[in-house]
Amino acid sequence: MSTETSFVTRAASLRAYASTADLAISPPALHEVSDRASRIAASRNLLNEPRPIRFIIVALAISFLTIFVVLPLVVVFASAFSKGISAYLAALTEPEALSAIRLTLLVAAISVTLNLVFGVIAAWAIAKFEFRGKTLLITLIDLPFSVSPVISGLVFVLLFGAQGYWGTWLQAHDIHILFAVPGIALATIFVTFPFVARSLIPLMQEQGTQEEEAAISLGASGLQTFFRVTLPNIKWGLLYGVLLCNARAMGEFGAVSVVSGHIRGETNTMPLLVEILYNEYQFVASFAIASLLAMLALITLVVKTVLEQRLDEGQPPKDDPSDH
Amino acid sequence: MSTAVARRSSLPGFGLTMGLTLTWLSVIILIPLAGLFLKTLELSPGQFWEILTSRRTLNALKLSFGLSFAAACVNLVMGTIIVWALVRYRFPGRRLFDAIVDIPFALPTAVAGVALTQLFAQKGWLGAPLAELGIKVAFTPIGIFIAMVFIGIPFVVRTVQPVLIDLDPEIEEAAASLGANRWHTVFRVILPSLIPALLTGFALAFARAVGEYGSVIFIAGNLPNVSEIAPLLIVIRLSEFRYADATAIAVIMLLASFLIILVVNRLQRWAQARIPVH
Asked: pLDDT at position A261, please?
């Protein structure tokens, strides 16, 4: 009897609470909600790790990333500014530093432009048409990613070096490829080859060919179709590829080191100058150049994150049957 | 097949773009790599064998492959822990740490090399306390190992992360409702479905570490037979104009990377066969 009354009063008070709070929920519904909540809480215990384990995992992840990734980055800037800002600026305005910066920009401009053009061309052929051996072609385009940078430089030494296949001929005609800008550009193009094509192929495959087919059937030329229909659709993906391609082109060390010849003030890119200055114990100067490259890396990461968001927004929902 | 033919005929430029692609690919990638293999053919099998089994080459290859394997193992374990923390838990700075994972990808290798050396040198922020414990990192094989761990970590994280995110929560709920405790659910249900991604990440980290040059040579010490990695030995042989030696080592390393690509492709096909594509 008493339990029944208590239940009734509780129900009444709940109803009163619901009405004062302007909630259109009847007491049984409230019961259901609290019931479900407790069930979810119970299953969450089964679907989650105990608190101490969660804490240990997060602590391990944070300390590993801090020690192995954050600290090296901090060391770069700390060492660069260890003798003050004037020493830092002086190091960056040395003629040798300026010539390295110029060469790096030039090589990046050449290799990014060429890889941009050919990356788009390759992506068009691969993504918009069906043919045999497509997987093999993509694997071949990917090859430079898995070749050691040193080997990427070595192959050009074997072709153009004094003892290489075309070395004698080049020498007879006074053409300089190795230990000069063309060699550095070639090695850089080799290591950055896959970036643009690889960021475009999945995007263009997903977009299919319907829009382009419509444009062609309405009388547009191939180039018009590409510039007015395809390009607007792939612009963020293209920018993404160019961004990563540029970061690698400016930062490449191993391949360029093998073909450059390290001629001071002439064939040293920024990463090579970092090495030379470090080996001469000019730590402030070395880390000053390194800090520029580190900033390039950080800016690249920020822009990359923004572009990834754009790319996600531009994608149709996953269950959308777009390609049928 | 009929759709393929229709596609080919309705959009222009297949011949032109395919021709340009193959030409550019040949000029930049295929001919230079073929040159490397042709150069090796100039050696007799005996000479080739002699170069590869010389003490210094063998030690360099052993060091490169052995330490890369060890570093990839550490990356596998730590990468899994990092992915788990980033995907499953909420903690302050989570998005920042997620972005930080990409730094080894983005930081030029020479910059990473000098930074790690400075950090682990005897007077460095980490090198000094370690030296007091009697552990010397810089200019020893441990330094090489550390550099390889640094460059390998994003490979495991970035291959496993999307798979863990996409993992169907119903599988876990089912395991839990069938009475499995959390330990069993994680190790018998979740981790097995991550295996293809984990192995792919491991293989990629291993491949990158084997070929790595810039971030390793500063911290390595580069003592022949002790702390001299194979890529550095290639550079040294080139500077001595011993092209044959450089080429022979390069070919072996290149064949190893081809083998890894093959393994990764197989792993990816395995993963696709196991998990139905949306």
From this structure: 84
Which B-chain residues 73-92 have CB contacts (< 8 A) with chain A? 78, 81-82, 84-86, 88-89, 91
User: B7, B8, B9, B11: best mutation site toward chain A, by most A Cβ within 10 Å?
Assistant: B11
Domain shared by A137 and A210, yes or no: yes
Distance (Å) from the C-alpha of residue B156 to the closest C-alpha of chain A? 13
Contact (CB, 8 A) for A76 and A287: yes
The reply to whether residue B213 touches residue A46, judged by beta carbons under 8 angstroms, is no
Closest to A147 measured CA to CA, from B164, B36, B226: B36
Least confident of A4-8, A126-130, B119-123, B203-207: A4-8
Helices (H) then strands (E): counts for chain A: 17, 0
Write out pLDDT tens, residues A160-207: 988 888 988 998 899 999 999 999 999 999 999 999 999 999 999 999
Residue B112 is nearest to which of A72, A150, A165, comparing CB atoms? Answer: A72
CB contact under 8 A, B150 and A186: no
Q: Is B71 on the interface with A (CB under 8 A)?
A: no
Taking the alpha carbons at both ends of chain A, their separation in whole angstroms is 67
What is the model's pLDDT at position A265? 82
In this predicted structure, the answer to whether residue A127 has a pLDDT above a threshold of 60 is yes
State pTM to two decimals: 0.86
Out of A29, A64, A80, a domain closes at A80
Residues A192 and A276 in one domain: yes
* Rounded (to 5) percent helix, strand, coil in chain B: 80, 0, 20
Q: Please report the ipTM that was assigned to this predicted complex.
A: 0.90
| Rounded Cα–Cα distance for residues B123 and B137 (Å) | 11
> Collapsing DSSP states into helix, strand and coil, what is residue B38?
helix
| Same domain assignment for residues A16 and A64 | no
Nearest CA to B202 among B96, B87, B77, B102? Answer: B77
Neighbouring residues of A118: CB distance < 8 A, sequence distance ≥ 6: A196, A197, B20, B21, B24
Number of domains in chain A: 3
